[in-house]
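Is adenosine-5'-triphosphate placement plausible here? Inputs below.
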Amino acid sequence: MDNSIVIDGIDAGYGSVRVLEGVSLEVRGGETVVLLGTNGNGKSTLMKSIMGMVPPRAGRITARIDGVTHHLTGRTTEEIVDLGVALVPEGRRLFPRLSVEENLLLGAFRPKARAQIRTNLAFCFEAFPRLAERRSQLAGSMSGGEQQMLALGRALMSAPRILLIDEPSVGLAPVLVSRTIDKIRELKERYNLTVLMAEQNFPQALRIADRGYVIVHGRIEFEGKSADELNNNDLIRKFYLGL
Ligand SMILES: Nc1ncnc2c1ncn2[C@@H]1O[C@H](COP(=O)(O)OP(=O)(O)OP(=O)(O)O)[C@@H](O)[C@H]1O
Ligand SMILES: [Mg+2]
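Reply from A.M.:
I modeled the complex. C-alpha cells:
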C-alpha cells in the first residue's frame, strides 16, 4: 500500500526566529529520501514540523497512509504517531535509567500498536538480536551504536508506515555509522517502510538514498532526482563530499 508524505510550502520557526522558509518536499511510497544539510540548516526543525512538535506557520503537510489521505498540519504529535508516522529523534532521546525492554514498550503508545505489543516486541528482538540479549540492561549503559538500534527499535514499536530518522550517524564511530545505515536499509525493506532521513554525512546517506534534497538556511537549495544526481552534482561534490 502506498504510504507517502507531501510537504507543501511550509514556514516554521521558534518565537520570532524563522527557520524554515517555503519548504516543499515529497516522499513517495516505499522510497528512502534523504534530507541533507550541515549543522543548523533546519533538518531537525523540519522533522519536528512533520511530527507537530514545531507546528508550521504556513503551508501544508499531508500524508497518505494505508490508502487514506490525512492533513497532518494542526494535529497533535500523538495523533500523528497514531496515524502511522514515527520519528527517531536526533540524539536518540532514550530513558537511560530504564531497561532496553522498558524503552521499547514506551514506543508502543499508539492504540493500534498496543494491541500488537507482543508481536511488535518480538519483531524488534528479531530485527535487533542484540536488544533481545540485553533486554534487561539499562539503556544508558549501552554503547552508542546499541543505543541507536534501541532508538530505531522503539520507533518500530508504534508499527509505523512512515519512518522519519533524524541524523542517525550523530556521535557514532565511522564503522557504526555504516552499520546503522545498513540496518536502516534492511528495516525499510523488511517492514515495507517509507523513509525520510536527515543526515549531514552525505556519502553514507547517499548509499541508501533513492533521491534527496539539500537544505541550506531553511530552504531547499537542491533536489536530486536520484542518488547519482546528488553524487555527481558539482557543487555537492565540492562543498559536501570533499571531492
Ligand atoms: N528550540 C529552539 N529555539 C530557538 N531556535 C532554535 C531551536 N531549535 C533550533 N533552533 C534554531 O533553528 C535553526 C535550525 O536548527 P535545526 O536544529 O533545525 O538544524 P539542524 O539542521 O537539525 O542542525 P544539526 O545538524 O546541528 O542537528 C538553528 O539556527 C537553531 O539555532
Ligand atoms: Mg538536527
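Short version: The chain has eleven helices and ten strands.
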